[in-house]
Write a structure and sequence with these properties.
The chain is α/β, with parallel strands linked by helices and 505 residues long. It folds into three domains: 183 residues, P-loop containing nucleotide triphosphate hydrolases (Rossmann fold); 173 residues, 3-Layer(aba) Sandwich (Rossmann fold); 61 residues, no CATH class. The chain is 33% helix and 25% strand. It has 17 helices and 22 strands. The protein has a six-stranded mixed sheet, sandwiched between helices. Strands 16-19-20-13-21-22 form a six-stranded mixed sheet, sandwiched between helices. 46% of the residues are buried.
């Protein structure tokens, strides 16, 4: 069902587009309108076809069938340059600025104002950047290099670049995944201002609270097909979830009741100058312990030091009573500890290697004979774990970079679970993945705990913390300031502690 406004012409319209890669139909017969002055959410599970739609709008892919219409006229974008010239701008989750050029130079790249004799008018370049930042209501120095800008500021620069090129349609692809709450609110203020100016915004996110806050219309996709387009005000979050996954989710947090066993992981007096101090905690077999706190509180740094990725100045880490050598991931792995990192692309996977090779990397020595990997053994191991995690792929030999974000996360999990760890540390286990995959990851974490694995979870999503943790350790400014049992953990108790209100917690 596609809801279109009678008597109102869409600024951009996707009309029955289909795109296949080999025998796989990534998108099949999808249609929906984008109206000027509206933010339109595009949602669906990882692998639903959202990225393919974005790439067709950006001119990276051309539809096999169907058209993209602009102002009512077919506008086949033959290249990214053609899409930009037509007024389409894509703001990606990870912007791609030229790091050694100034912010202002990045904004006018390819369209530098010139003086006589063709010289670049640097004063005009800076003035253009200042004008755009004033219009967006943000403060960024136009003369500073792009290198070192936060992800949030890089996205603002990309938006300024789009406005400088007179973009009319802004596609925002998971723009908030790596942002703090304050940065998200600033981005939304900018997006609302652009929407109210008459721009059409297509917003892709897995966070339903963001969709209901920013968007007026929502299109839902599943398995490459269009499911529905509705006004956000007329469809509940529960209905959106049901349409996305094509089934009722019994529960997003399928936490099993497990009687914790003996202490497996002990951390005493862990410290790293200027980052965290006096960190002590323990985790028992079958227990899920969550680290919560605001961005910058030191949660990820603590678990990386526990695993040995980062060094520590003081403290002891013991696994089953055995002291682990500081700064040695190999020692942690040998003792039975696994770490699923926050940044799966940079730290968790080798993107150019195959899916099966990524799954078996930590066990390559065990699967080798005379230094040579045994292909059948590697394949059996990869099949076993990708099937258990319900990973979607075409061929195990494909590069892992061809998978959707949620399926990449499953490969990272498969890689470490194949080692049968005694302690599993997961840092932001469901960041950037869809609601159906989230439920599967939560189910897996719960079943591992039921099998006796000690699980340590770092999460910025309070519902996930409250839904999955047996205990919540709240950090602030590099210290654990509260330990809250499951029965007493609420959004307010966790946030009070994270913001310095221990008495309320």
């Amino acid at each position: 069902m596609t809801r279109q406004e009678p008597g109102r012409e869409p600024l951009l319209e996707v009309r029955g587009v289909t795109k296949s890669f080999g025998a796989v139909a990534a998108v099949a017969g999808v249609s929906f309108p984008l109206y000027a002055g509206e933010a339109h959410a595009l949602v669906g599970e990882n692998g639903a076809g959202k990225s393919t739609i974005v790439k067709m709008l950006a001119g990276v892919h051309r539809p096999d069938e169907g058209t993209v219409a602009l102002d009512g006229e077919p506008a086949g974008f033959s290249s990214p340059a053609a899409a930009k010239a037509a007024g389409i701008a894509v703001i990606y989750q990870e912007p791609t600025l030229f790091p050694d050029l100034s912010v202002a130079e990045n904004i006018v790249m390819g369209r530098h104002p010139r003086k006589a004799l063709g010289m670049i008018d640097r004063a005009a370049v800076r003035a253009e950047a200042e004008r755009l930042f004033a219009r967006l209501g943000v403060r960024i120095d136009p003369g500073r290099p792009a290198r070192g800008l936060s992800i949030a500021d890089q996205q603002i620069v990309e938006i300024a670049k789009a406005l400088s090129a007179d973009a009319r349609v802004l596609v925002m692809d998971e723009p908030t995944a790596a942002l703090s709450l304050v940065e998200v609110e600033r981005l939304f203020s900018v997006a609302r201002a652009l929407r109210d100016e008459g721009k059409a915004i297509m917003f892709i996110s897995h966070r339903f609270e963001e969709i209901t806050e920013l968007c007026q219309r929502v299109t839902i996709m599943r398995d490459g097909k269009h499911v529905s387009t509705d006004l956000v005000a007329e469809v509940t979050v529960e209905e959106m979830v049901r349409r996305m996954v094509g089934r009722e989710l019994d529960t997003l947090f399928p936490k099993q009741d497990v009687e914790p066993g003996a202490v497996v992981l002990e951390v005493e007096g862990l410290a790293r100058e200027g980052v965290f101090r006096d960190i002590s905690f323990s985790v028992r077999a079958g227990e899920i312990v969550a680290f919560a706190g605001l961005v910058g509180s030191g949660r990820s740094e603590v678990v990386q030091a526990v695993f040995g990725v980062d060094g520590r100045d003081a403290g002891v880490v013991r696994l089953n009573g055995k002291k682990l050598r500081a700064g040695s991931p190999r020692a942690a792995m040998s003792a039975g500890m696994a770490l699923v990192p926050e940044d799966r692309r940079q730290q968790g996977l080798v993107m150019d290697l195959s899916i099966e090779r990524n799954v078996t990397l930590p066990r390559s020595r065990a699967l080798s004979k005379l230094g040579l990997l045994l292909g059948p053994g590697e394949r059996r191991e990869a099949v076993r774990w990708t099937e258990r995690l319900r990973t979607k792929y075409r061929r195990l030999g494909d590069p892992v970079g061809t998978l959707s974000g949620g399926n990449q996360q499953k490969v990272v999990l498969a890689k470490w679970l194949a080692m049968a760890p005694k302690v599993l540390i997961v840092d932001e286990p469901t960041r950037g993945i869809d609601v159906g995959t989230k439920a599967e990851v939560h189910r897996l974490m719960s079943s591992l705990a039921a099998e006796g694995v000690a699980v340590v979870m770092v999460s910025s999503e309070l519902p996930e913390v409250l839904g999955m943790a047996d205990r919540v350790l709240v950090m602030r400014e590099g210290r654990i300031v509260a330990e809250i049992p499951r029965a007493a953990a609420t959004e307010s108790s966790v946030m009070f502690a994270a913001m310095g209100q221990e008495a309320a917690a």
